[in-house]
Every structure is written in structure tokens, then in C-alpha cells.
Amino acid sequence: MQRRVLLAITLMVLVAIVPSLFLKPAPRRPRSAAAPTESLTARPARAAPEPAAPPVVRPTETAAQPGVAIAGDTVSIVTSRSRYRFTTIGGAIEAAELTRFQAFAAGDTGRVQLVRPGDRMLVHRLVLDEDTVRLDSVPFTVTARGEGRVALTGTADPLSLALQYAFVAGNDYLLDVTGTIGGLEGRGALLLVSLGNGFANTDADSADNYRHYGISVRRTNPEVVNFRSVDPGQTRAVEGPFDWVALKSKYFIGVLLSADSARPQLGGALVTGAPRTGRTATHAGTWVTMPVGPDGRFRYQFYLGPQEYRALHPMGRLTDRASPYGWIFHPIVMPVATWITQFFIWMHENLKLGYGLVLVVFGVLVRLALWPLNQKAMKSQVAMMAVQPILKDIQTRYKNDATRLQQEMLKVYKEHKVNPFGGCLPMLLPMPVLLALFFVFANTIELRGVPFLWLPDLSQRDPFFIVPVVMGASMWALTKLGQAGMPPNPQMKMMVTVMPIMMTVLFVNFASGLNLYYAVSNLVSLPQQWLINKARQAEMTRRQVPPAGKS
Predict the structure, then answer these.
(1) Is the CA virtual torsion 517, 519, 459, 434 positive or negative?
(2) Which residue, of 41, 58, 261, 400, has the greatest Cβ tally within 10 A?
(3) Is residue 253 classed exposed, middle or buried when 0-12, 13-18 and 19+ CB atoms within 10 A define those classes?
(4) Is the pLDDT of residue 153 over 70?
(5) Amino acid 547: pLDDT
């Protein structure tokens, strides 16, 4: 898929530039998860203020869900958008339901459940001297329940552990986690916190979902550790300190954050690889390390929910960039994609438009914004055509003197006020938008499962291939109309036919929303191109450029 995208981008750039040209003259060594080294430790964080918390806590439930390997009583914390269930075995999260999101995996008609059956998140282990204490198998007791919070205690002789989970006010997916380890006798220790073995699949295209699996960390800027870089059965140590460590899939994310953003306290991450299926790479577990002081206290926050700009951006700390898509185009694509996402959300919420109509309006607005530049490009093209006889004469006279030839050509450009590259810029400007839209529609959860007309999901391909065909046909019509009245060119005649066919084949499996945007953009450009053609004829007459086919 990535190769097809790069090829599509290359062909689009060629379509934009070539017509103007014809009309002019060492990996780190793995370390053991059982014995993290001292290099994975970091300074302890300062205590942060106690957060307020919203809604309801469910009473204690019995019986874990089917498939859970370790049975125990459970207690749930519920908000308007999420329901997290904790098991008393290890005091960890054994289920996380996101009530706003529908599951699209085969045979699953319920709401999104992120934790895999049999897995748990936020289990703890303690490295004390040369021993590892498995707090994840300790039976815990629920000692307090209240609005949006639950407290548990457990004992692993001679140590004890007290945990409290509480939702942070204003964010239905962000937990504040505080703990106290008793029995350390004034010694420090290293705490290991598990992010589990990955999320349950929630989408129809499981292969694409798993391709997005990875670990993202932030030292200064977000960085991604792809699971494909970790061999099956091997453990890779990613050294910090980090402000946060995140486990991510295509649309969902679990972010373990230092309690104090000014003092990164997460020492490192330990990622263990799992067997691969085809090109898909998963992992067998991720542990994050943090120091525990002599007082036995620790604190961190945990976001478990959608990769949603509205939920992640207010947290700050660049968590909304945990999936820095864009490959080599990242410095250009990421800012444009972020702006487009914000604009889509603004139109959706303030203009009360569905995302399908938002996309149509956006396509129209982009073409209207480029109208003045297209007019300027047309005049630049005509100006270049007007000076072609002069340039040809100069090329003949100074064909053996490259320096003089360049000087004379620049002199002609200056005297006739011609910009040889003026016709390219308006054609290239939509490219960053189109590239950014590819990632927006492929990765933005706001568009996940959103229908429009006959399209069941704007983030997936058109099941009837109607929009890609319309996109290709409109591209052919636009290119054909753009050549009306221009000097005959065999190469361009071939491109008018071949390029729309190639682009249709390349785009046929891309997100239907992307094809819809491109088709709308092309259709809006047709009347614009007709007006430009009329203005071009008038400009050619004014500059006394010979009609097409005459020298």
C-alpha cells in the first residue's frame, strides 16, 4: 500500500509538471525484561495536584468475562464515554469498553473492547535488589469506591501495595494512578508497569489494523518503535527517560504518562516480539519502568481510548502526535493533516454538517482558493509561448556557449517579465493537501465508520468503485479541456489518456473519502478551466501568440 501511495504521488507530480515543461523551452542490543538495567531508570517525579473526577463507579461484580485466564472479583469505573473494569487479581484493567465506538470486526456487533480476552493492562512488578516481585498475581481487596474512583490493597509478604485509580476531570479516558508500596525499609526500587499484549482487533480490516501496531515514545518529540523491528521471542530495551510511552493501533491508543511533564520519570520500555503472520508484526508484551523512592510512593497517568484530536490535544505533551504519519514527507504532511483535521471538526460541529458534506465543501473551497493562482499560471504560460521564437533563436545562436545561453535567456525573461516556473506552482500546491488527506482518511478516528450516500465508511474503499471511476473520468475531462487551444503535443496527447487510467487503478482501493475529495475537486475545476481557456485566448491575442498548429 505504501509503495502504491508513493507511486501515486510521483505520478501526480509528473502530471502537474510535465505539461508545463512541454509548453516551455545500528539497532540497540536487546536486554532481558526480567532484569532491567539501571540505565532504564529516571528521576522520580514531583507530586502533582490531586485531580477531581467525574461520574459513577459500578458496584463489585463477580465472574470475569469468558476467556480470562485469571479469575477474580471485578469492579468497574463508568463515565459517559467509557467503562473500565478492574480485576482483584493484580489490581489491573481486564476490560475497557468505549461506548461511543462501534466494533467492526467480523462477528462483533457490540461496542469497542480494547483489552484482549485473557490479557490485562497496568499490572505491576517490582524489581528489588536482584529479586522481581510479581505483584500482578497478588489478590487485591477493594477498600474504597466513589465517584469515578476505586482503591485496592494487596499483600505480597513482606511487601504491601495500595492502588487508587481515578478519572481526571474533563477527560473520560484519562486515569490518575497513585500507589504506595509498603515494606521497602527505606530502599528504592524499580517498578514495571505492563501495557499488555496489544489491543483486541476492532476493525473489519484486521491486517491493516495490525500494520499500525507499534510503540510510540516521547523524549523531546514523539518517536515510533515498530514491532517489525523486534524479532519474535526477543526483547528490545528502548532507553529513556520518557515523558510518555504509548501502545497504539490504527485508531486507539494507551498512553502511560509521567505525573509531571517537566520531569520525565519513565526510565524506559521493554518490548518483546511475537510470531509474525505475513507482513503483520505484533508483540508479546510491553513493560514500562519507573523508579520508586524510599518512601514507596509512585504516580503516573494512563490514557486508554481513541486517537482522537479533541481528547488528546487538550492533554498537551504532543500526545496527539503519537502516530507521526507521513514517512519522508512528515515535516510537510503532519502540520497540514493536523490543520485539515481541525478544520473538518470545526465545520462538523459549528456548521452541523456531516463529514461527507464537510469533504464536499472542503473540495470546493480548495479550488476557489486556487482560482487566482490558476489565472496567474495561465498568463505565465501564455507569456512563455509568446517568447518561444526569441528563445529558439537564442538557443540556436549560443548552442555551443552554455554560459552565454543562460545569460541571454535570463535577459529575455526579465525584459518580457516572464516567470518560467509560474505555471507549475498552482498545480503543485494541491499536492500537500492531497497527500495529507490520504493520511487523514486512513488514520483519523473521526471519520471511522462515517457513511455518506452509498458509501458505508469514508475511511474505507468504495465497495462499488463508483467514486474512483468518477474521479478518473473527471481527471480525463479536466486534462482534455486544459489542452484546448494549445499547440499540439504528442506526449501530452498520450498523457491525457493514460494518466487518468493509471490514477484510477492506483486510487481504486484508497479511502472513498479521498476519492470523493479528488472527484469533487476535479468537477469544480471544469467550469474554472473553461473560463481560464477563454481568458487564455484573449491573452494570446493580446500578446500576438499564433493559434494552435501555426508557427
Answers:
(1) negative
(2) 41
(3) buried
(4) yes
(5) 53
Q: State the first-to-last Cα distance of the chain, in angstroms, to the nearest integer.
A: 46
Q: State the pLDDT confidence band at 181, using cuts at 50, 70 and 90.
A: very high
Cβ atoms of 180 and 188 closer than 8 Å: no
Cα–Cα distance measured from residue 161 to residue 182, given in angstroms and rounded to the nearest whole number: 6
The DSSP output letter for 56 is -
Neighbouring C-beta atoms of residue 143, cutoff 10 Å: 12
- For 181, the grid coordinates are 508500596
- 117: helix, strand or coil: coil
Question: Do the Cβ atoms of 65 and 95 come closer than 8 Å?
Answer: yes
Grid cell in block for residue 300: 503516573
In contact, 355 and 346? CB cutoff 8 Å: no
Joined together, the cell numbers standing for residue 243 give: 515523558
Q: Which range has the top average pLDDT, 14-28, 201-215, 466-480, 495-509?
A: 466-480
Give the helix, strand, coil percentages of the chain, each rounded to 5: 40, 25, 35
Strand partners, 112: 98
Residue 451 is predicted with a pLDDT of: 92
Average pLDDT of span 477-502: 72
Residue 241 preceded by cis peptide, ω within 30: yes
Structure confidence at residue 84 (pLDDT) = 93
- C-alpha cell belonging to residue 163: 492502588
CATH architecture of 38-43+51-319: Distorted Sandwich (2.70)
pTM of the model: 0.74
Q: E-strand spans in 157-263?
A: 159-167, 174-182, 189-194, 214-218, 222-226, 235-242, 244-248, 252-258
Treating both helix axes as pointing N-terminal to C-terminal, what angle do 430-443 and 355-386 enclose, rounded to 10 degrees?
A: 160
- Domains in the chain: boundaries: 38-43+51-319, 337-543
Pairing type for strands 297-306 and 252-258 reads: antiparallel
Q: Give which of 246, 249, 247 is closest to 211, Cα–Cα.
A: 249
> What length is written for the chain?
551
Best CA proximity match to 484, nearest among 407, 540, 410: 540
Whether the Cβ atoms of residue 253 and residue 305 lie closer than 8 Å to each other: yes
Question: In whole angstroms, what is the distance from residue 448 CA to residue 139 CA?
Answer: 39
CB burial of 448-471 (b: ≥16 within 10 Å; e: otherwise) equals bbbebeebebbbbbbeeebbbbbb
Question: In sequence order, which residues have a C-beta less than 8 Å from that of residue 378 and are 6 or more positions away?
Answer: 423, 532, 535, 536, 539
* pLDDT for res 262: 82
Instruction: Mention every residue, 6+ apart, whose C-beta is less than 8 A from residue 124.
Output: 90, 91, 92, 135, 136, 161, 179, 191, 192, 193, 194
**What span, in angstroms and rounded, lies between the C-alpha atoms of 299 and 178?**
4
Residue type present at position 60: T
480 Cβ neighbours under 8 A, 6+ residues apart: 496
